[in-house]
Amino acid sequence: MKLKDRIKIIKMKITQVYVAVKSKKTPFYAKAVGGLAIAYALSPIDLIPDFIPVLGYLDDLIILPLLITLTIKLIPKALWAEFEEDAKLIWKDGNPIKWYYGIPIVIIWVGIIAWITYMIIK
Fold first, then answer.
1. CB 3.0–4.6 Å: which of 59, 82, 89, 99 could bond 48 by disulfide?
2. Residue ranges covered by each domain of the chain
3. How much is the pLDDT for 70?
């Protein structure tokens, strides 16, 4: 399987995780891990910056699929199949319908950076 195909699969699975996190049927522990996966996927800041050769992209290729896989394991199979159908509706015409859901993640990171800057200057 080509890398481009794998990326498409991960994109669809992270959308399914998003649908699962929003659902009231999803167990709390699955929501927690799924929320972490979504935050990591949308986060502009990585644990290992991308400019570091090999390791920068390796963390994205390991951590994100690991979080997604763990979330999938924590959700009952019948429920996961339901989320798969709902996720297909989000990516109509190849573009997400509600792209603005990433804004809170950016705001959180800006707040963290502002707080760290304040603590350093103080």
1. 59
2. 3-121
3. 92
